[in-house]
Write a structure and sequence with these properties.
By secondary structure, the protein is mainly α. The chain has 5 helices and 2 strands. Helix content is about 30%, strand content about 5%. A two-stranded antiparallel ribbon has the order 1-2. α2 packs across α5 and α4 packs across α5. The structure holds heme C.
Length: about 240
């Protein structure tokens, strides 16, 4: 094989893959405009776009700066690429009082309005696309959802159920203060009688707002959903 053929074949093998994986999706998806839920939306053609400005955008930055995406994905895989839907609370819930089965895959609009789509690099930890729903519905039983997340960020191994957690602790996002009189609002409730309190910094507060905003349970048009709605649930109440 001459050098010329070798070089051309090499360029073709990489070039075709590059075209198919990078160039074609870029041109197909870069100008997709979501149809937001408004007066003209019928419920079958609209998607809900959550607000991402302010603290949520700040929190997203803290998430990126601290490398959370290295271990946590935010992508409920489409069924053809490996079924994630069976993990009930990954994208929506199997059963909710009002809506029944709200499970769904990630779609392209889920990242609308985000500066960076934090799809993630690996899944060393659980997928966080639907974390906000999980924390509120399942984890934070005796404390507020914010407090649950602060506790996890400060010490992921604080409770018996999570004693082997491999999630790193992000203590530097909290300030240690000496209690002078009344404790600060939002301070961590540790089983500690010392006069030191652990107060979340502005970064920790923004990060927690962002984490609680991660919800993938909004209804999507059937054309984007993994499963067609069951016959009984299509009848409007
Ligand atoms: C070295 C990899 C790694 C990094 C980096 C990491 N985590 Fe984790 N995380 C894990 C693992 C593993 C778990 C599962 C164990 C557990 O539930 O505590 C986890 C669990 C969690 C959970 C509980 C999720 C659930 O549904 O049970 C939250 C919330 C979380 N991490 C948030 C974060 C945030 C926010 C960051 C960045 C500030 C971060 N993690 C960075 C590995 C990581």
């Amino acid at each position: 094989m001459s050098f010329r053929t070798f070089f051309l074949s090499l360029s073709a093998s990489f070039g075709v893959a590059w075209l198919a994986v990078v160039v074609v999706p870029y041109f197909k998806m870069r100008s997709i405009e979501p149809i937001s839920m408004g007066d003209d939306a019928t419920g079958t053609n609209a998607v809900f776009i959550p607000k991402r400005a302010g603290r949520i955008a700040d929190g997203s930055k803290v998430y990126a700066e601290n490398g959370c995406y290295l271990c946590h994905s935010q992508l409920v895989r489409p069924t053809y690429a490996g079924n994630d839907i069976f993990r009930s609370d990954l994208g929506g819930m199997v059963y909710e009082d009002q809506r029944g089965d709200s499970r769904r895959e990630t779609n392209v609009y889920d990242y609308a309005g985000e500066k960076f789509a934090q799809i993630g690099e690996t899944r060393l930890g659980p997928d966080l696309s639907n974390l906000g729903v999980r924390v509120v519905n399942s984890y934070a039983k005796d404390i507020s959802p914010e407090a649950w997340l602060y506790r996890h960020l400060y010490n992921p191994r604080s409770s018996a159920a999570y004693s082997h957690s491999a999630c790193p602790s992000f203590r530097f996002l909290f300030d240690e203060k000496k209690i002078n009189g009344i404790a600060s609002g939002g301070a961590l409730e540790l089983d500690d009688t010392s006069d030191i309190e652990i107060v979340p910094s502005a970064d920790a507060r923004a990060l927690v707002s962002y984490l609680l905003s991660l919800k993938k349970d909004q209804p999507v048009p059937p054309s984007l959903n993994f499963a067609k709605p069951a016959a009984s649930s299509t009848t409007a109440p």
